[in-house]
Amino acid sequence: MGFFSGQFSNVVEWEEWRDDMIFWKWSNREIKKGSKLIIKPGQDAIFLYNGKIEGIFKDDGEYDIESQIIPFLSTLKGFKFGFNSGMRAEVLFVNTKEFLIKWGTKAPVNIPAPGMPGGLPVRANGTLAFKVNDYMALIDKIAGVKQQYNVEDVKLRITSVIDQLLMKWITKEGKDMFNLQANAFDIANGIKDDLDMQVIRDGITITNLQVMSFNYPSEIQDMINKNAAQSMVGDIGRYQQVSMTDAMASGNLKGGSTAGDMAGMMMGMQMAGQMVNQMNQNTGNGQPGSQMAGAGIPNFCPDCGQKTSGGKFCQNCGRKLI
Fold it and tell me: Which CATH number fits domain 99-219: 3.40.50.620, 3.40.640.10, 3.30.479.30, 3.30.43.20?
C-alpha cells in the first residue's frame, strides 16, 4: 500500500516563479493522496473548485493537503481520497508584494497654452506602485481565463490611458504650463485616483504614483531657463547671496587658494556695501536709529563699511562721502 501511495504523491507549488509575476495557476492536474502544498514567503495559495474559492492560505511553509488543507476547504472538507483517485482542483498562487514600475508618456501630450495654436508638447515620466487587493475580483476578471499574469500586462494597460489622464490633470484649475513641476504632487494624486478606479475592478489597487519630471521641447526649455536666469539677475542681492552660497558649498571660499580668498573678500565687501546702502536709505527715510553724522554724510562708508566721523572723506579707505 505504501508503494502505491508513494507513486501518487506530488507537490503543489508555484513552479514557474518569477519576481515580475502577479499570479500563476496550478491546474489541469489531479491532487493525489499524500500530496504536499508548498507556500513560499510573499505568496498566498487559493484553492479553487469549479471556479469558486474553497480556501485561502497565507502562511508560508509545507503542508499535507489531506490532513492540513482539506479540512479547511468550504465544500471539499469531507473529501476522501481513494486508492486510485484524487481531487480535481486548481490552486492559484498570488504574489503579495507591492510592484514598482516606471512609466512615461508614449508621445508628447499637447497641452492647450495661450499663443500656441497646436498646444504645448509636454512629456512626463515617473514611478507607479500597485498590488493585488481583491482576490474575488482578480479571479472573476482575470485569473478565471488566464494561466498567469505579469507586471508587463498591467504596465501596458496603464500606459494606454496615462497620457489622457495627464492632460486632464495638467489642464485642470489653470496650472502654469511653464512650471508644471511646482504642481507635480497634485497632478500625480489626481492621476493616481483616476487610474485606481479603472484597475480596482480587476482586484488591483494603485498604492502610489509620482511624476518625477516634465520635459518640454528644447527651444521651450531654453526659454524657460533664460527667463529664470534673468529673473534672478534682476534681483542683485539674491543673485549675490546665491553665488556666495554656491561658492561656499563647493569649497571655493575655504581659503584653499588665493583666487578663492580674493573672491570671498570681494563678495563680502559687495554684501557689506549693500548693507550700508540699505542703512543709508533707511536714514534718508527718517527711520529710527539712523542719526546723520553730518548733512548728507552717511553713517558708514559705502565701500569699506567703516563708521564715518562726519568728514567728507572716509578715514579708512579715502572714499569721498559727499
Answer: 3.30.479.30
